[in-house]
């Protein structure tokens, strides 16, 4: 299982990559493997400011639909529009082409509350 050590993780199986005060967010390799073939990613919260743990969208797989939870408070400034035509990128490249949103963080101290790759491995029993 692929868990890049430079990323942060959430109990809801999202990953976070920080670049200054902007966070790129997607779902983990573990999450996409549990969901199966992803057929649709919906994010209707672009340009909205949300609190951490609020639902920012959904990911639809062949057998299920799962909510996506915001890992950090802030404004959603970008959606990966390539996912509209190629949602399977989440399965094939969850940490690259399969990223979902970018957030302009309003409280960088929340990053400290996210999990390291080692903590996330413990959570999923890897």
What is the domain total for the residues?
1
| CATH level-3 fold name | OB fold (Dihydrolipoamide Acetyltransferase, E2P)
Order of helices and strands: EEEHEEEEEHHEH
Put simply, the count of helices is 4
Sum up the overall morphology in one term: globular
Counting helices, strands and paired strands, the structural category is: alpha+beta
Binned strand content: 25-35%
Please outline the major beta sheet.
Answer: 6 strands, antiparallel
What does this structure look like?
There is one protein chain. With 126 residues, the protein is α+β, with helices and mostly antiparallel strands. It has one domain (8-110): OB fold (Dihydrolipoamide Acetyltransferase, E2P). It is 18% helix and 35% strand. It has helices at residues 29-35, 82-85, 89-92, 117-124, and strands at 8-9, 14-19, 22-27, 38-42, 49-50, 55-61, 65-69, 74-79, 101-105. Strand 6 and strand 7 (65-69) form a beta hairpin. It starts with 7 loop residues before the first strand and ends with a helix. The model has no long low-confidence stretch (mean pLDDT 97).
Give the topology, please.
Elements: E1 8-9, E2 14-19, E3 22-27, H1 29-35, E4 38-42, E5 49-50, E6 55-61, E7 65-69, E8 74-79, H2 82-85, H3 89-92, E9 101-105, H4 117-124
Antiparallel strand pairs: 1-2, 2-3, 3-9, 4-6, 5-8, 6-7, 8-9
């Amino acid at each position: 299982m692929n868990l890049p050590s430079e990323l942060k993780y959430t109990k809801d199986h999202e990953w976070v990559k920080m670049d200054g005060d902007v966070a790129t967010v997607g779902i983990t390799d573990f999450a996409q493997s549990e969901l199966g073939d992803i057929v649709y990613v919906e994010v209707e919260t672009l340009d909205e400011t949300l609190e951490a743990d609020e639902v920012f969208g959904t990911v639809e797989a062949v057998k299920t639909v799962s909510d996506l939870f915001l890992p950090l408070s802030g404004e959603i400034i970008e959606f990966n529009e390539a996912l509209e035509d190629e949602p399977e990128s989440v399965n094939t490249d969850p940490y690259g082409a399969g990223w979902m949103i970018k957030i302009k963080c309003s409280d960088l101290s929340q990053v400290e509350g996210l999990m390291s790759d080692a903590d996330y491995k413990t959570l999923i029993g890897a």
